[in-house]
């Protein structure tokens, strides 16, 4: 009588994927992001409420820039370039130190142009800028 011998195939450990190093890296990245998140400064804009009364609207400013849909910039009825705004606003800052500049922006203008104007205003020394959307 013959005995039947069963041969079991043992899977090698080489075919298994070790997830431990991957999980270690993911946890290190998670902890890094959790520690760095409070240190990141983000610009934010306060939005006005829907039912704004006339007394809460900003006063008319002498320093009013208009940003049109074609991304042209206008100051006191004159079309000016982005390079000219810096020198103009520095001079106006000396003439009117207490004025807050207003930017009247069209909804179809590019955000990058607004961002460039905002950075120029900060470089000129203005702490605040009113943004009027139409």
Structure, explained:
The protein is an alpha/beta fold and 134 residues long. The protein is 34% helix and 13% strand. It has helices spanning 20-36, 82-95, 111-124; strands spanning 64-67, 73-75, 78-80, 102-105, 130-133. Strands 3-2-1-4-5 form a five-stranded mixed beta sheet. A hairpin with a 5-residue loop joins β1 and β2 (73-75). The chain is rod-shaped, with a radius of gyration of 30 Å. The model has no long low-confidence stretch (mean pLDDT 81).
Short description:
By secondary structure, the protein is of the alpha/beta class. It has helices at residues 20-36, 82-95, 111-124, and strands at residues 64-67, 73-75, 78-80, 102-105, 130-133. It has a domain at 60-133: Nucleotidyltransferase, domain 5 (2-Layer Sandwich).
Key features of this structure:
5-stranded mixed β-sheet; 3 helices; single chain; alpha/beta; rod-shaped; 134 residues
Largest sheet: 5 strands, mixed
The CATH class of one domain, by name, is Alpha Beta
Mean pLDDT: 81
Computed Rg: 30 Å
Strand arrangement across the biggest beta sheet: 3-2-1-4-5
Distance between the termini: 98 Å
- Counted beta strands: 5
N-to-C SSE string, H for helix and E for strand: HEEEHEHE
The structural class is alpha/beta
Shape: rod-shaped
């Amino acid at each position: 009588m013959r005995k039947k011998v069963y041969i079991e195939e043992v899977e090698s450990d080489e075919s298994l994927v070790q997830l431990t190093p991957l999980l270690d890296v993911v946890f290190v990245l998670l902890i890094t992001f959790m520690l760095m998140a409070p240190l990141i400064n983000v610009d934010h804009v306060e939005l006005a409420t829907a039912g704004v009364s006339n007394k809460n609207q900003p006063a008319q400013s002498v320093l009013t820039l208009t940003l049109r849909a074609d991304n042209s910039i206008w100051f006191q009825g004159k079309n000016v370039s982005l390079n000219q705004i810096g020198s103009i606003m520095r001079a106006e800052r000396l003439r009117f130190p207490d004025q807050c500049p207003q930017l009247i922006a069209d909804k179809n203008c590019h955000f990058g142009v607004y961002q460039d104007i905002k950075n120029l205003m900060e470089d000129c020394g203005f702490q605040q800028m009113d943004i009027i959307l139409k």
